[in-house]
User: Fold this.
Amino acid sequence: MNPVKFAFTVDDVALKDFSSVEGFLELLDFLKNQQIPGTFFVVPFNQDIPLFERPDWVAALKKALSEGHELQLHGLRHEAFEWGIPPDFIMAYEHRERERLEREREAIEGAFTVTAFKEKLAQGIAIFTRVLGYRPTGFRSPYASLHPNLFQALAECGFSYDSSLIVNPKGWRYIMKDYTPGITWNKDVLPRPWEYRPGLVEIPIMAEYAWFLKEADVEKQYQLIKEDLDKISESGGTMVPVCHVGPITGVNRAGLKVYERLLDYARQKGNVLFCTLSDCLENKTDLNGS
Ligand SMILES: [Zn+2]
Assistant:
């Protein structure tokens, strides 16, 4: 049986209020201790400040690259309707955005053109390239908001993969402290990479498991992520959890215990290959199969 590929992914890098340089460096230390690579999704613009005007962040990102991690693009300004409409299980707790959508749906949806997406991608690519010296090839949408035209724009802008579709919505229910049983994986999203359209592979996210946790939450979250890893191991596929810098570091570092336990478990279990998301693309024979 092929090994289960496991990609540790982190969102909201350099996003104000959700990500500090200290928290980011804490995650780099964690990954160094665990000896696994991470895939980090970086926000190019913070309100009106582009990444290249934030030297502390530029230095931290270059450190991550030198330690073997992958850095890719996380939208442009990290707005809810930047790349489509977020799924219901995310909109459920975004009250302000929900009200805005009710008021302005027509104008919001009217902006989802291939041309508009390509213009925003070009801005993100330009900032990213200026700061890090290469074009991003991977994309993750803020708020998991998606639109079919975005996939076309990504392909036309030379991206190799998107990683925004979500397999298990339970993680977001847990964020709302809703532990109702019976919520299942999204049947329309395969827990493995597949060629979404020619030249563009989708590598779905499994779930978020460590959002502002307290010590008392660790066991419940560990059981959820362990269950998902076990299911992937049985059915074949790729394990792509997502976490966010601020909600898992500093005073919120209880969330890292979920991963410490899971990584120990995965190593004991064996047959798990820790890799970046780009590594998941390398062996194309894995696409559409286990
Ligand atoms: Zn985000």
